[in-house]
Specification:
binds zinc ion; 4 domains; 277 residues; 4-stranded antiparallel sheet
Length: 277
Amino acid sequence: MPRKQREDLTGRKFGRLTVLSFAFRKKSAYYWNCVCECGTEKQIAVTNLIQSTKSCGCWAKEVYKRDAKLRAWKHGLEGTKEYRAWQGMKNRCNPDSNAGRSNYYGRGISVCDEWKNDFMAFYNHIGPAPSEKHSVDRIDNDRGYEPGNVRWATNKEQCRNKSDNHYIEFKGEKLTVIEWSERIGIEESAIRSRLRRGWTVEQTLTLPINANPFGRNNGRTPRCVEFNGESLPIPVWAKKLGMKDHLIRSRLKDGWPVESALTLPVGSENPLKRQKS
Ligand SMILES: [Zn+2]
């Protein structure tokens, strides 16, 4: 019998275990009563105490639980769309990669520290991709990949998010030019050009191709609005007041008083509507 088996282990610590007292002998094995840091009491053989056992079993359970997420993605998510998106995102921001040098890194776009080395942190925030066509999109183009600034978006949605954020409101719906184009089947360029030529939103979005709301004037005589004793075309008012002309048009179309339509800041509500409620 090894000498150690006969040693008094009372009070000794082995990992999380503290030996309380001798328990019993079973053949050549000596068992001691131990208490774990978690409060569990267990009888453990001396050889196990010295060689390997460091807790009542709680430690192994914790490690298993802690690593479960890691195992899950290593086996389940590696190679998935989400994982590739995460790698691509890091690659685009890596100064040592071609993509990073030429584009994102140079513009100061980076991946937040939380996500850089932790796919699961990124995945838990953004969630699974809705389809193969979706990719990671930054909501605010001037900010990096960070919580609150990413979402899954299709290419079309991403384009909408880029420079041209021209929204048109009509019949209570606020859509981009691209979205209206898809909806009504008129080319984006035609919509833009109609608005530029002073068509109202309603005319722009409802009249068929080749229509001409201005008759012989060929769209060159925009509607005039009188305010403060001056009668000017809407685009001129817009320029003068630093407003978007389509905003003025849509307000007038919604029955706003001229003064409110021309003076209230973006995002204001129709003052007449407010009085009613
Ligand atoms: Zn324990």
